[in-house]
Amino acid sequence: MPKTYDQAYFDKWYRSAGHAVRSPAELTRKVAMVLGQAEFYLGRPVRNVLDIGCGEAPWRAVLRRLRPGIEYRGLEASEYAVMRYGRSRNIGYARFGQLAELRFDTRFDLIVCTDVLHYLKPAEIRAGLTGIGEMAEGLAFLEVYTREDDPGGDREGFFNRSASWYRSQFDEVGLIPVGSQCYASPRLARSVASLERL
């Protein structure tokens, strides 16, 4: 039976004291780190963000606090999240694999995809990554956990893949690893020094 990403799911994994694995302070540090990394390679402030598998869009509030005026667009496959927050938080409905065809009128300075890929099948990952490779102007933050990790949290439907498998998929679409699960877009290849690449 497929998982249901309803309000009960988000309450449990994002708000429950007994299950939530990330604190608001940790999220703020993570967003600040990713923004700093993206802006270093872009050479300017991040102007727009695409957040894939955004859930209830917790990144949005932090991004807007740290960079007032930033343009945020979320994509989410949870009908609950889109129905409840779609209009107020600019979240549209899309599955990860649909990024193979889905395009917008701009590329994105920062693309975020956290805690999503390790629940997806290989064909959907490959399809969606083609879109990320094409739509990323600056940096992609692809937070993925592998069989070598112990991230805690929701393990239902978790695929125990190796880190090397994910690296090969990211490399296929030209994403350049620059540390802390951040990947420079193919457009920034000339801006990434040899020893900055992992």
TrEMBL record:
UniProt xrefs under Gene3D superfamilies: Vaccinia Virus protein VP39
Listed GO biological process terms: methylation
Keyword Secreted: no
Keywords: Methyltransferase, Transferase
Entry-linked InterPro entries: SAM-dependent_MTases_sf
Keyword Cell membrane: no
Molecular function terms from GO: methyltransferase activity
Superkingdom as given in the UniProt entry: Bacteria
Name assigned to this protein: Class I SAM-dependent methyltransferase
Organism encoding this protein: Luteibacter pinisoli
Top-level taxonomy: Bacteria, Pseudomonadati, Pseudomonadota, Gammaproteobacteria, Lysobacterales
